[in-house]
Amino acid sequence: MALYEYVTKEQLAGFDRYKYSAVDTNPLSVYVMHPFWNFLVKFLPTWLAPNLITFTGFMFLVLNFLMLAFYDFDFTASSAGNQHVPSLVWVAAGIFNFLAYTLDGVDGKQARRTNSSTPLGELFDHGLDSWACIFFVATVYSIFGRGESGVGVVTLYYILWVVLFSFILSHWEKYNTGILFLPWGYDISQVTISLVYLVTAVVGVETWYQPVIFNLLYRDLFTFMIIGCSFTVTLPMSLYNVLKAYRSNTLKHSNLYEAFLPFLSPVLLFVLSTAWVVFSPSKILELQPRMYCLMVGTAFANVTCKLIVCQMSNTRCEPLTWLLLPMTVVVGGAVTRVFTNETLLLYLWTAAVILTHIHYGVSVVKQLSDHFSIFAFSLKKPSRD
């Protein structure tokens, strides 16, 4: 019996009919990374469960986040005159990030190698990927920090939202077309980020103070690349594929209203979280940027996971996520000064969001494990006694 049955009977029936369909045209992925992963997977023991590989990779990103939180909690360590993050920490960050990326690429190959591919594996993989967005964005931000040569926390906040929406676009696209078009930016960004961590360990964060060319700083290039890639590649391609399906009558949902319905909860989450940033009496984002972004990223992951469940089960996406209701109360209480200690309120609400998301994830994994008669982290079969 699951902790709570979040997945409906209709969705369970949809999972039974599910077939994986994805398109990956990125040259880096096709010609470099996949051959590398095919080579590596041969060294993994055949008893090793793919979901355990997925979870281990995710925990490397969490470890990076916690490690940088210890040395640079408020994102000021990279500023001139402050105690910088030790070089060995950047070495570890680069290795852990690449390990996380590699394990994320190997898990599916291990599943096919051991004949253990299930819809649960894909859901588990993509669900953790949705939460991983906040961990790697926050870790990368520590390279530049929030000083004069860095990026302001408000800019960080909007960059985070660009990354989050770029992630959900792929799953919204599959929700409507039935095909997951893997974005080019993911592979390029993961390899680049891993290298940047290692370069930072060698040359120091002071190198990033210098302009790339003329007055263009590395922080500006970094921001431009993220925003530019999202608005000139990811968004146009997703819209093109969905509208193409609409015109050819292959759209999986009845009309454009149903097609765009999954964006309602993410947009409302953006409105609520941005309202707190703009109208916060104590400027909560300036006070607690790491905790605030963690709260937003976790809430967004919860919304995204529910879309992925609907997408994989071929069921209608619910317009609203219930998590937005208490968040409305929290934000309203903060901006109207009903709660005077905003920092305490943020910490309590962040803890509530994290626990809620973990409960949701554990419940769904348990429910699907029971449904498919498998163990989530073992290739052994459950006893039927």
UniProtKB/TrEMBL annotation:
It is found in: Endoplasmic reticulum membrane. Ethanolaminephosphotransferase that catalyzes the transfer of phosphoethanolamine (PE) from CDP-ethanolamine to lipid acceptors, the final step in the synthesis of PE via the 'Kennedy' pathway. PE is the second most abundant phospholipid of membranes in mammals and is involved in various membrane-related cellular processes. The enzyme is critical for the synthesis of several PE species and also catalyzes the synthesis of plasmanyl-PE, a lipid required for proper myelination and neurodevelopment, from 1-alkyl-2-acylglycerol. It is a multi-pass membrane protein. It comes from Xiphophorus couchianus (Monterrey platyfish). One of its GO terms (biological process) is phosphatidylethanolamine biosynthetic process. Its main location: endoplasmic reticulum. One of its GO terms (molecular function) is ethanolaminephosphotransferase activity. Pfam families: CDP-OH_P_transf (PF01066). The keyword Transferase applies. Its cofactor is Mg(2+); Mn(2+). This is Ethanolaminephosphotransferase 1. The chain crosses the membrane at residues 52-73, 85-103, 123-144, 151-168, 188-209, 221-239, 259-279, 291-309, 321-339, 344-362. Belongs to the CDP-alcohol phosphatidyltransferase class-I family. Its EC number is 2.7.8.1. Keywords: Acetylation, Endoplasmic reticulum, Lipid biosynthesis, Lipid metabolism, Magnesium, Manganese, Membrane, Metal-binding, Phospholipid biosynthesis, Phospholipid metabolism, Transferase, Transmembrane, Transmembrane helix. GO terms for cellular component: endoplasmic reticulum membrane; Golgi apparatus. It catalyses: CDP-ethanolamine + a 1,2-diacyl-sn-glycerol = a 1,2-diacyl-sn-glycero-3-phosphoethanolamine + CMP + H(+); 1-O-alkyl-2-acyl-sn-glycerol + CDP-ethanolamine = a 1-O-alkyl-2-acyl-sn-glycero-3-phosphoethanolamine + CMP + H(+). Coiled coil: none annotated. Pathway: Lipid metabolism; Phospholipid metabolism; phosphatidylethanolamine biosynthesis; phosphatidylethanolamine from ethanolamine: step 3/3.
